[in-house]
């Protein structure tokens, strides 16, 4: 500190969607986690790391905005603890001082960890097309966009092996889907 508080390894610039302050999103995992956080000033570790934090990282939200959100709403958010968890572990904005890899996942992980997906407008098993879960296309877009920063990381090399094996057509569909979702992020 104080440099740590401004680190932004991926250069993320997107504003925090307004629904982070209301929970009014069709994505059930985010809606439930955010509404619970706003109401009780508390969320489980997985809700923080793998639902809200995961989405923010995949969507390229500015880490300053996410830091302010966590600091503002959680009862246990004291800055010296919160900032290492948010900017370091959750957003990998420090480039790996706290963690060794970014904590991101597609819908598959969220589906396994809870029951949000069974009551969602989106389908966790769909990557593209109508009702495809946004986490899926955003996940692969994240790896593609950040390839120069992540490809050499030994903990995530396998993701690039998988990505490199995908057909150009499939990748094009995935990345177009992700960009469509990002351009309409307020209405997800
Ligand atoms: S389908 Fe996607 S958006 Fe909906 S609850 Fe599951 S992970 Fe969240």
Structural overview:
The chain has 188 residues and is mainly alpha-helical. It has 2 domains: 3-90, Orthogonal Bundle (DNA Cyclobutane Dipyrimidine Photolyase, subunit A, domain 3); 123-187, Arc Repressor Mutant, subunit A, CATH 1.10.10. The protein is 53% helix and 0% strand. The chain has 9 helices and no strands. The chain has helices at 28-40, 45-59, 63-73, 79-90, 107-113, 134-145, 147-150, 157-165, 168-183. The N and C termini lie far apart (36 Å).
Features:
mainly alpha; DNA Cyclobutane Dipyrimidine Photolyase, subunit A, domain 3; Arc Repressor Mutant, subunit A; 9 helices; globular
Count of DSSP H/I helices: 9
CATH architecture of the largest domain, by name, is: Orthogonal Bundle
Judged by helices, strands and strand pairing, the structural class is mainly alpha
The CATH class of the largest domain: Mainly Alpha
What best-fitting shape do the alpha-carbon axes yield?
globular
Spatial extent as radius of gyration: 16 Å
By CATH, the superfamily of the largest domain comes out as DNA Cyclobutane Dipyrimidine Photolyase, subunit A, domain 3
